[in-house]
Design brief:
Elements: E1 4-8, H1 20-29, E2 34-42, H2 51-68, E3 74-82, H3 88-95, E4 102-106, H4 129-149, E5 154-155, H5 162-165, H6 179-192, E6 195-199, H7 214-222, E7 228-231, H8 244-253, E8 259-263, E9 266-270
Parallel strand pairs: 1-2, 2-3, 3-4, 4-5, 5-6, 6-7
Antiparallel strand pairs: 8-9
Length: 273
């Protein structure tokens, strides 16, 4: 019964205290086949903080656990590049440090004056409606820039700001206003052969949805997208693999029978169950 959690965080991420030992133990106890360690590399902080050192430490930790868990749990070495388009030279420099198995591309912050902090730290209840619309348009523009120019394998959690806008602050968003932009992102990702991540981190929370939700997954397929990863985006061991039953069911209902994980930057198909 293969299942790979391809998006996980450990204490090498700024927002996690999870030891990789604990993550591996939890994944093994749940019968997972493998995990990809994808600690944060938020490029907007690359020149001012220890992003590079933390990512290199994460790689070494994952590499050591790969050997220690061989035959029981496949441990893969990845990284989540956030805001890579803010400083492409920095992103390239970081990726040259180690032979990562998988590169996740994500947008956690938007190049919009006055709102450049990560959306997890923005009080959207105080943001005027017009600014919120401009913010989301900017979010998808940054995402399009990322999928067309950045060195990534996986497009992550496409609708992640809704975790905060709707889940935390209860603000309803008519996402149809952004369909044209989202479709440009999906088409570009499909054309490049990127995998679309089905992210389960919001399942069981106030924003109880997969990211992205089913209609976006369907549109990615309509544009020729064929690769999907499933990731919990866990920052604590207890959340490893959480919500995977919903993700697998959603993919099956859309006719998708295979997912992928990445090893040596190559997609490896498997049938999740």
């Amino acid at each position: 019964m293969p299942l790979y959690d391809t998006h996980t965080h450990t204490n090498h991420s700024h927002d996690s205290e999870c030891a990789l030992d604990d993550l591996c133990e939890a994944a093994f106890a749940r019968g997972m086949t493998g995990v990809t360690v994808t600690d944060h590399a938020d490029i907007e902080y690359y020149r001012t903080t220890d992003v590079r050192a933390r990512v290199n430490a994460s790689f070494r930790d994952a590499d050591a656990h790969r050997a220690a868990w061989a035959g029981r749990l496949k441990v893969l070495r990845g990284v989540e590049i956030g805001e890579g388009v803010w400083d492409p030279d920095a992103a390239r420099e970081l990726l040259s440090d180690a032979p990562f198995d998988q590169i996740i591309g994500s947008v956690h912050a938007v190049r919009m004056e006055g709102y450049t902090k990560p959306y997890s730290g923005i009080d959207f209840s105080r943001m005027p409606a017009g600014d919120l619309a401009r913010y989301l348009h900017g979010y998808f523009e940054d995402m399009l820039d990322m999928v067309t120019t950045a060195d990534v394998d996986v497009l992550a959690h496409v609708t992640c700001p809704l975790r905060y806008i709707t889940g935390k602050f209860g603000i309803s968003v008519d996402m149809s206003a952004y369909d044209r932009q989202i479709d440009r992102v999906l088409r570009a990702a499909a054309d490049r052969g990127l995998a679309l991540e089905v992210n389960t981190s919001c399942t069981g929370t106030a924003y109880d949805e997969l990211m992205p939700y089913g209609s976006i997954i369907r549109r990615f397929m309509d544009f020729g997208g064929t690769r999907f990863t499933i990731g919990s985006d866990c920052h604590a061991a207890v959340r490893c693999g959480a919500g995977f039953d919903r993700a697998v069911d959603a993919l099956r209902r859309l006719g998708v029978t295979q997912a992928v994980y990445y090893e040596n930057r190559q997609p490896v198909p498997y049938t999740p169950d």
